[in-house]
Design brief:
Layout (H helix, E strand, L loop, with lengths): L2 E2 L11 E8 L2 H10 L6 E3 L5 E3 L3 E8 L4 E6 L3 E7 L4 H10 L24 E2 L2 E2 L4 E8 L5 E5 H4 L16 E11 L11 H9 L9 H15 L7 E5 L5 E3 H10 L5 E5 L2 E4 L1 H7 L6 E2 L2 E3 L6 E4 L5 H19 L8 E3 L17
Parallel strand pairs: 2-5, 3-5, 4-20
Antiparallel strand pairs: 1-2, 6-7, 7-12, 8-9, 10-11, 10-12, 13-19, 14-16, 15-16, 17-18, 18-19
Helix pairs in contact: 4-5
The structure holds flavin-adenine dinucleotide (FAD) and NADP nicotinamide-adenine-dinucleotide phosphate.
Length: 353
């Protein structure tokens, strides 16, 4: 009997899995991986970074391993191991309440801990890689549990080995963190929105404690981002493009107000949301699909849109940005099945939008 995935992913599309298994231990996971060796299946966390472009999926393995183990405690830090099925935001709050710091800027990110390393989740200037010291994985073919240290995970900007060289090779069963204790951590309050929110509450951004920063983050996110329980979305649909500086300079001459953030020698990050907004897509919709009115980077399912319609709309936006700015946008959201050029791009007249 097939299982509906409508409530198991945040775009809320009508999708069904022919087979659906939940795994709450490593031995259950190995059993499932063995049985499905050589056939396609999806590993599902909280479904907050997934777009299904087909209405039926053959097989789904939902990761539900729970638990938090304190491995080591020193005067200045703790090391903890967290099950891949632990919901992320409650974990952030639990660490902060325990006096273990660092994850405060990552508050209110939906999903489960096991997916965090996939794209090295990040927000407000902080990334998981700053505090993740490694992950326990099971190789999907070899079925051998192993530990990959942070270096082996090859974390990058919204990226890791799990999205690149080792795509679809591993199931992440737990994640290990080293978190600093009080007196050994200074929260990052560099982002303008965090500074402004703290100051509006009479808190000096340079003196704010991690809990105050988490509260500021939660306040900003709740006031700006659509709640997936009310409006289907998967957060930022596209990654911010990292482009060579020689490509940025001509753009800056044409658009002097364009935000540009240097990231490394010779490269800069552009704000995909700004490009989409300038191209005129912020708040625009077609049928049940659109880019959100407060956040141009968020693709929204306003009702009964299919994954295929959402993907077609996203391609249209990316194509337009490419034509207007010469910048390629790459989806941050994971597509199932993997991206294909077979999905037709809507040919829209400007007046339809
Ligand atoms: P899923 O969507 O279930 O899976 C994502 C991918 O990881 C899929 O390819 C899946 O197959 C794979 N996967 C999941 N679990 C495992 C596992 N245990 N082992 C192997 N593969 C696995 N992201 C950010 O980085 N920063 C943000 O600030 C942010 N804000 C968001 C705000 C909103 C409103 C929403 C809806 C999303 C946001 N996201 C953000 C995206 C998303 O929440 C994160 O990427 C999150 O880590 C995804 O977790 P998940 O459990 O829902 O993963
Ligand atoms: P914002 O503050 O309006 O900023 C727009 C973009 O500019 C962001 O994408 C951010 O890049 C970049 N930026 C802003 N200030 C910066 C600084 N001081 N240094 C470097 N880059 C800067 O962004 P927002 O949309 O409201 O999101 C706020 C934060 O939450 C961002 O970090 C964003 O990544 C994160 N977020 C992520 C998702 C997701 O699904 N991935 C969804 C919602 C929010 P970065 O994105 O690289 O930080």
């Amino acid at each position: 009997m097939s299982i509906s995935l409508k409530d198991k992913h945040t775009f809320g599309c009508a999708v069904a899995a022919k087979e659906y298994w939940e795994m709450s231990s490593i031995s259950e996971a190995i059993g499932a991986l063995k049985q499905w060796s050589g056939v396609p299946y999806l590993i599902l966390g909280g479904g907050s970074n997934l777009l299904f472009t087909q209405p039926e999926i053959p097989r789904v393995l939902a990761v539900r391993m729970l638990g938090l183990e304190l491995l080591k405690e020193t005067k200045s830090y703790v090391e903890i191991e967290v099950g891949a099925g632990v919901p992320w935001h409650p974990l952030v709050m639990q660490t902060l309440q325990s006096g273990w710091y660092g994850l405060e800027n990552l508050a209110l990110i939906p999903g489960l801990t096991g997916a965090g390393p996939m794209q090295n989740i990040g927000a407000y200037g902080v990334e998981l890689r700053q505090f993740c010291i490694g992950v326990h994985v099971i190789h999907r073919q070899g079925l051998k549990p192993q530990f990959l240290d942070a270096k082996a995970c090859n974390f990058g900007y919204r990226s890791s080995i799990f999205k690149t060289e080792a795509k679809d090779q591993f199931l992440i069963s737990s994640v290990r963190f080293r978190l600093p204790k009080v007196g050994f951590h200074k929260p990052n309050t560099d982002y303008g929105a965090i500074r402004e929110t703290l100051m509006s509450k009479d808190i000096d951004p340079d003196m704010a404690n991690p809990l105050q920063v988490a509260e500021a983050v939660m306040y900003i996110r709740s006031s700006k981002l659509p709640d997936p329980n009310e409006l289907g979305n998967a957060g930022s649909f596209f990654k911010n493009p990292i482009v060579p500086i020689d490509r940025v300079e001509p753009l800056q001459q044409r658009f002097p107000q364009m935000p540009v953030y240097p990231v490394s020698e010779g490269f800069a990050k552009l704000a995909a949301g700004w490009l989409i907004d300038q191209a005129g897509w912020k708040g625009k919709s077609l049928g049940s699909v659109g880019m959100h009115k407060n956040q141009a980077l968020v693709l929204v399912n306003y009702g009964d849109a299919s994954g295929k319609e959402l993907w077609s709309f996203a391609q249209l936006v990316a194509q337009d940005v490419q034509e207007k700015f010469g910048v390629a946008l790459e989806p941050e959201v994971n597509l199932w099945p993997a991206q294909s050029n077979e999905v037709p791009i809507y040919r829209l007249q400007e007046k339809q939008l």
